[in-house]
Design a protein that fits this description.
alpha/beta; Leucine Aminopeptidase, subunit E, domain 1; 7-stranded mixed sheet; binds ligand AR6
């Protein structure tokens, strides 16, 4: 499913973030140390060459809401944008910090003149953010930022399962563009 805001398509899909072969960049739901871990970070670092972990090392640690960019050795994309989402109930204000992740990642995509970027549902796994709240923040932040984008033409949110996809679909259908 997709909607268009300004000249940017915002779409949702079910899949694996490491398998987005048509995207210039994928976003990592990282940890502060930018090391391999579970979930998205584990999948990206396992699929990437060991060099990916070497590239992230000098950029760590990062704070909640921050995003940093590296090349993507071993992955089918040009870049990985590593974002640290808030731990729900601990990093406050969690809604502002989560929105900042999306804003900062899109800023980096634009700065590198990328055309396409795929996000996972940041903070909704190990970091415990309730999916409906996170979906609303993600989609509203992304749509808001599209007005600042010239280069980025496609933004995809990749959901791991049907339930998460349905939650995002409902938000996307209701949102004002
Ligand atoms: N592709 C797409 N989505 C995925 C994938 C995948 N391969 N794997 C999991 N998800 P999480 P967080 C979904 O835990 O909450 C890590 O250990 C998953 O179902 O990856 O930001 C890091 O090292 C969930 O909806 O990220 C950090 O310590 C969403 O992606 C910490 O977890 C995010 O789950 C970050 O926690």
């Amino acid at each position: 499913m997709k909607i268009t805001s300004k000249h940017t398509a915002v779409e949702i899909a079910i899949g694996d973030i490491t398998n987005q072969t048509d995207m210039d960049a994928i976003v990592n739901a990282a940890n502060a140390e930018l090391r391999t871990g579970g979930g998205v970070a584990g999948a990206i670092h396992r699929k990437g060459d060991p060099e990916l972990t070497e590239l992230t090392r000098p950029l760590a640690p990062i704070n909640p809401g921050d995003a940093v960019i590296t090349e993507a050795p071993g992955l089918p994309n040009k870049y990985v944008i590593h974002c640290l989402g808030p731990v729900y109930g601990s990093d406050e204000p969690s809604d502002t910090l989560l929105a900042k992740c999306y804003k900062n990642a899109l800023y980096l995509a634009e700065k590198h003149e990328l055309k396409s970027i795929a996000f996972p549902a940041i903070s909704t796994g190990a970091f415990g953010y309730p999916m409906p709240d996170a979906a609303r923040i993600a989609i509203e932040s992304i749509i808001f930022e599209t007005h600042e984008l010239d280069s980025v033409e496609t933004i995809r949110i990749v959901l791991f399962d049907e339930k998460s996809f349905k939650i995002h679909k409902d938000v996307l259908e209701q949102v004002e563009v």
